Amino acid sequence: xxxxxxxxxxxxxxxxxxxxxxxxxxxxxxxxxxxxxxxxxxxxxxxxxxxxxxxxxxxxxxxxxxxxxxxxxxxxxxxxxxxxxxxxxxxxxxxxxxxxxxxxxxxxxxxxxxxxxxxxxxxxxxxxxxxxxxxxxxxxxxxxxxxxxxxxxxxxxxxxxxxxxxxxxxxxxxxxxxxxxxxxxxxxxxxxxxxxxxxxxxxxxxxxxxxxxxxxxxxxxxxxxxxxxxxxxxxxxxxxxxxxxxxxxxxxxxxxxxxxxxxxxxxxxxxxxxxxxxxxxxxxxxxxxxx
Length: 291
Known about the structure:
GO terms for molecular function: DNA binding; DNA-binding transcription factor activity. Keywords: DNA-binding, Transcription, Transcription regulation. Residues 6-63 form the HTH lysR-type domain. It comes from Pseudomonas yamanorum. It holds the Pfam family HTH_1. This protein is of the alpha/beta class. Helices cover 42% and strands 24% of the residues. The chain has helices at residues 8-20, 23-30, 34-48, 64-86, 102-105, 108-119, 132-140, 192-203, 217-225, 270-286, and strands at 53-56, 59-62, 94-101, 123-130, 146-150, 160-171, 182-187, 208-214, 231-234, 243-245, 257-264. β1 and β2 (59-62) form a beta hairpin. α6 packs antiparallel against α10 (270-286). It is flat, with a radius of gyration of 21 Å. The model has no long low-confidence stretch (mean pLDDT 82).
């Protein structure tokens, strides 16, 4: 008999909470209320008769029993996706050339590509990660079948488009002195986020100085966590246990956002259509604003 504890939605919630290290972080990514996720975790603990998470000063971590479940939960979900793929009437095969903008490539999209690989094991993925303008050039040169990047860089109509809201963030224990120039952490040019940040600060008459410049969002998030300055980040990249959202230039103005698009070649094989479907689903989840 299959245990009710192994309902996929309960396992996905548990894995997400463990990955984020907090219920709030998992709730933000899912675009759901924290109380709903807390109820699911309690339900899972009741079904298994074990305490799965324990609180720390910086969030939650799995207990010994939780670590064991985390290992098996990941395998259970991956196996379910594999079985579903094998039961399809027709095997999806072929090559898909996917281009991802670097600023979104480290978030929800790798998970989508992983699901595509498990669901369609005969699809060969060629993934390229680059900054927006270079990615658009690859697209224009016919080097990609699917691309996700800043819409302003592309001279084409996207299959889907989304606004990604950006938030001013600093280290969780950093204090901002309004009397001093603001230390900012920015992407290397060319970058829509960088231009958006500078325009907002200039319009607000806020003095600032660049402390860290990097083309890598991993470096930028690490710099924020280390207290080296303030950055603009989407909800997906904000870690509540090490960062906090602050109000700066946009406090009396509109929310800052960047429009992204998913681009796909007009003539699509089954493998390209599968990639578009999973990437669309994951990118839409990534763009949910904080509540």
